[in-house]
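In this supplementary section we document a worked example of the pipeline. Step one takes a protein sequence of length 209 as its only input; no multiple sequence alignment statistics are reported here. Step two produces a three-dimensional model, which step three serialises into C-alpha cells for compact storage. The input and output of this example are shown verbatim.
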Amino acid sequence: MTDQLGDEPDTQPERVQPRDLLDDGVSNRPQPKKKMNPLVEWLVVVAVAITSALLVRAYVVQQFAVEGESMLSTLQDGDRVLVNRLSYRLHDPRRGDVVVLKRFDGNATERDLIKRVIGLPGETVEVRSCVVYIDDRELKEPYLDPAIQQRDGCGSDQAPIQVPEDSVFVLGDHRGKSSDSRAFGPVADDFLIGRAFVIIWPVGDWAWL
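The serialised model returned by step three reads:
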C-alpha cells in the first residue's frame, strides 16, 4: 500500500473566478440606467429652450418692429428687423450702420428709435440745403430716396457740430419726417442697443441692411 505524500500535485481543477465578479463577489456588470420620467424630461427640455432663447435675446440677437416713416424708403412701417446686440462690444459704430437706440428724453411711453449713423467721434457734421457735410466734405448717401426728399423736403438744417468722443450723430433716411440728432444732438454709445442687419418681415421686404 502506497502512502499518499503531502506534496502530491492537487488533481482537483482550479476554480476560475468569473470575470463579471469583483474580488468581493459584487457583480461588475453595468447596471441599467434609471429612465427619467417623460413629463420631467419635457419640462427640462422646455426650461432649457426658454432659457437659451432669453439669453440670446438679451445678449445676442433681438427682433425689432419698425414704427413710423422716419427710415423710408429703407424701412417701412411694420417691417421687422434683427438687431445684433454684440456688434458694438466687438467694434465701434461705423458710418452707414442702421442702429436701434434707447429713448433718452425721459419719455417712457415712446419706443426705441431706429436711425442711421452719419457722424463719428471727432468729426464735424453739418446739414445744409438737404446735403450732409462731414468735415466740410459732402457725404454721398445712396440709401436716400430722391422722390421722397423731393416730395417731403429734408427737414431742418444742422449748424456745424462736433461729435463728442464715444458718441455718434444719427439721422433718419426720411429726413423730412425724422426726429434725430438735429433735434436731440449726438447720441452716446451707451444708448445704442445694437446694429440692425436684416429685414425678416414681411417676406417680400427681406433684405440685408
